[in-house]
Amino acid sequence: MAELREELKEKLIEQLSLEDVEASEIGDDDPLFGDGLGLDSIDALELIVLLEKDYGIKLKDPKEGKAIFESISVMADYISKHRTK
Amino acid sequence: MIKEKYYISDFCIIRDNRVFKNGEQIYVDTESENLKDFAKGIYKFMELKYPKFHKMDELCKLGFLASEVLLKDVENLREDTALVLSNKASSLDTDRKHQISIQDKNNFYPSPAVFVYTLPNIILGEISIKNKMKSENAFFVTETFDAGFITKYSKVLMHTGKASNVICGWVDLDNDKYDVFLAFLSKKGKKELTKEELNKLYRSNSYG
């Protein structure tokens, strides 16, 4: 699981163009939206695409993302349970 | 016919790996191999701290950076400062990137972050958000920089009280070929706003 969390941090930085952020600066339980990394609604859509493209997880309702993208830990947990690739 | 006089207070050009403010070269970068790195160099040179910059497409970055250079010394920028920009290639550079992401049905993953920039007027939004402007704005697509039209349109905005100032110009990008010219227009200044003067400034600083 630790490996997946690190992988997700790297993917977030690359996919969301977080150029001023290092993977080591993102805490496993830091909120990704709001006061945490400060991601926005377009980032949320990018994360939905990332789930499908890299892990074969297709969210039926985009609103599900709100809970799944709470933090790196929550995301990693969800991916490990639902991934198809 | 508007008889009231308006003026060009400041202007910025980004062209040929260089940045000019009021005719003076303030930045040059002949090392960067692509526009992304060139834009990042200007961002650092300007000591900007605006993470959203890195998410912008290259066209937006150019317009945004030119506005930062242009407005650096403008005090108390009014929220009714209008934006009147134009270019030739619209958002073609990003349109192509989006097209590539949707043309393969078996690998169909369009990026929302790319898609949002498939309109050139997003530049206006980005500049407005950064500077808290709530104003008239327009983006025109023309074959070349039409100083006459831009001058008339800007004068009308200020004359009718729709705007206290106007940021106008040309922000064009196509396949890493870029040409950027922004001017800050106001009711006070030394250079009178005329079609000829705006055109002269646009054509200055060419080829270094």
β-sheet strand percentage of chain A: under 5%
In angstroms, what is the radius of gyration of chain A? 12 Å
Strand content of chain B: 15-25%
Mean pLDDT across residues of chain B: 95
> How would a crystallographer describe the biggest sheet of chain B?
8 strands, mixed
End-to-end distance of chain B: 37 Å
What characteristic shape of chain B results from the CA principal axes?
globular
Structural class assignment of chain B: alpha+beta
Provide the gyration radius of chain B in Å.
17 Å
Point out poorly predicted stretches of chain A. Answer: none
Shape of chain A: globular
* Uncertain regions spanning at least 5 consecutive residues of chain B: none
Number of helices of chain B: 7
Please count the helical segments of chain A: 4
Helix content of chain B: 25-40%
What does this molecule look like?
The complex is a heterodimer of chains A (85) and B (208). Chain A is mainly alpha-helical. In chain A, 52% of the residues lie in helices and 0% in strands. Chain A has helices spanning 2-15, 41-55, 65-68, 72-82. Chain B has helices at residues 35-45, 58-71, 92-102, 112-115, 122-131, 147-159, 195-203, and strands spanning 7-15, 18-21, 24-28, 82-87, 137-141, 166-174, 177-186, 191-192. The interface between A and B is small, with 13 and 10 residues.
Helix-strand blueprint:
The complex is a heterodimer of chains A (85) and B (208).
Chain A lengths: L1 H14 L25 H15 L9 H4 L3 H11 L3
Chain B lengths: L6 E9 L2 E4 L2 E5 L6 H11 L12 H14 L10 E6 L4 H11 L9 H4 L6 H10 L5 E5 L5 H13 L6 E9 L2 E10 L4 E2 L2 H9 L5
Parallel strand pairs in B: 4-5, 4-6
Antiparallel strand pairs in B: 1-2, 1-7, 1-8, 2-3, 6-7
Helix pairs in contact in B: 1-2, 2-5, 6-7
